[in-house]
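Practice problem: Small-conductance mechanosensitive channel
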Amino acid sequence: MDALLTEALNVLRRTGLDALLILAGAAVLGGLVYGAVHRGLRALTRGLEGTLPLRGALLRRTRGPLRMLAPVACVYLALPAVRASFADTTQAVLDNGLQGLFVVGVAWALIAVLYAVEEAVSERYKTDVPDNLEARKIITQTRILRRIAATAIVVIAGGIVLMQYDPLRELGTGILASAGIVGIVVGVAAQRTLGDLIAGIQIALTQPIRVEDVVIVEGEFGWIEEITLTYVVVRVWDRRRIVLPITHFLEQPFQNWTRTSADLIGTVFLYLDYTVPVEELRDELRRIVEASAHWDGDVVGLQMTDASERTVTLRATASAKDASTLWSLRCEIRERLVAYIREHHPDALPALRTRLDGPGEGERPARGGDA
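Answer key — structure tokens:
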């Protein structure tokens, strides 16, 4: 039995299968170590997701890259023990391959950490509450900076991996040495991309817009749904999406209704007859807003802002906590004021009057004897 085992080991050594089995065992060992550590960490943090959102997000997000890195690291550590079993070319391939996989795994893990931080920030700062200005500010900065950092990590990791291989390194050197017109073309083509990247950084720092800001852009009313490094998605009230280059918000004027606060003042215009009782309508407006769930209790008023040859213009103003609530409040005011006028003062609705006068004092009807 011992002789058979010895012969089998000799065969494995001659064919190099022993080295492959050692490397495979190292990979399996790495997977087992990762599994044990991961389960231990999950057991320690179970029930703490609500109080420690970052820890839970890190465990979820880094599961994939760590599952890849643990076997790669174990194989790389076991490689010197079996290096003599491989030819020089095979050794170089294994070294470059493992180093490349390690770089990719580290880059993946770093990007996962960025996503975990963003997830924890989103969990900490809610945007579905009335006073969410600070939350939208922090989430916007986190999201844009995460995209910038992730892009930089991918570029750097890709460069490191490519530099592991001599043919690609020589190709890169040749391209740099003979840049010429190609460099000019690439520079012109990249100018817009770099401009968008700089614009994204500028928006992250100065924040003319934030996620869930209420804006009017290109004549459309909507909310900022997504901000990337190159474009911004605006969610229109009818569920359409407008996609604009990010530079649009630095170069073109637009309205931001929630730049400093979410509360707004809205107006309702009524065009009525000169006989309308303004003071009575003013009292009715106050009764309407005080009974409304949409009013924030701040601003309410009614003023006559214009008078034409046929009608007067009344402007009702009221405030609400945000744009959506204000829209509902304006519709409610308009409907109830019109109903009140129609029911109590129908003569105050716009009307066209025609007056027919009799003959003037100097014009007497003709008599038969005067002819």
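Discussion: The beta strands are 214-217, 220-227, 231-236, 241-245, 255-256, 264-272, 300-307, 312-320. Students who identified this feature from the tokens alone can consider the problem solved.
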